[in-house]
Amino acid sequence: MLRSKFTSLCQRVSAMFIAPTQTQVQGMLLLLGVALIAGGLSHDVLAQAGNYDDIGEFDDQRVGQAIDRIFAYIEGSFGALIMIVAGLGAIMAAALGSYSAALGLLVVAVGAFILRSLVATFFNTESINA
Questions:
Q1: Cβ–Cβ contacts within 10 Å for residue 109, how many?
Q2: Residue 35 sits in the same domain as residue 67
Q3: Of 2, 27, 35, 103, which residue is 20 to 30 A from 51 by alpha carbon distance?
Q4: What CA dihedral angle connects 62, 60, 79 and 89, to 10 degrees?
Q5: How far apart are CA 13 and CA 42, in angstroms?
Q6: Whole-angstrom Cα distance, residue 28 to residue 26?
């Protein structure tokens, strides 16, 4: 009795590895996914057990400098050029009857004018001088 059940179980496992059905493949992939997630989260679970200093802090100083440089360009003569071109394009589009294009160009013109204030408002940045 026990031997026949063990033989039947071994035959099913062997058949599963040789020619698995779609349900068996999905079950094996589910188990693999659960194992990968459990292995990946074990570092966070054991965070209090030892001193894990392998994850450092992100230094965003260079990103802030790049953003400040881009804002300097947009608030300078390049931003004025964008505003003038977008404003003229909005006037021409409105004159030709394309009001949706005119509205889009108007948003670009106003956005170039108030970009730094919008970014400081929505992203709560400290490095950007408002």
A1: 19
A2: no
A3: 35
A4: 130
A5: 30
A6: 5
Residue 130 lies in a domain: no
The tally of CA atoms less than 13 A away on the side-chain side of residue 119 is 18
To 10 degrees, what angle do helices 99-113 and 115-123 make? 80
Query: Are 65 and 117 in the same domain?
Result: yes
Give the contacts of 82 (CB within 8 A, at least 6 positions apart).
74, 108, 109, 112
How many helical (H) and strand (E) elements, i.e. helices and strands, does the chain have? 6, 0
Non-local (6+) Cβ contacts of 96 within 8 A are none
Q: Give me the helix-helix angle, 77-95 and 61-75, nearest 10°.
A: 50
With b for 16 or more beta-carbon neighbours within 10 A and e for fewer, the 28-58 pattern comes to eeeeeeeeeeeeeeeeeeeeeeeeeeeeeee
Q: How many residues does the chain have?
A: 130
pLDDT for 71-125, tens place per residue? 888 888 888 888 889 989 999 999 998 899 999 988 888 888 788 777 777 776 6
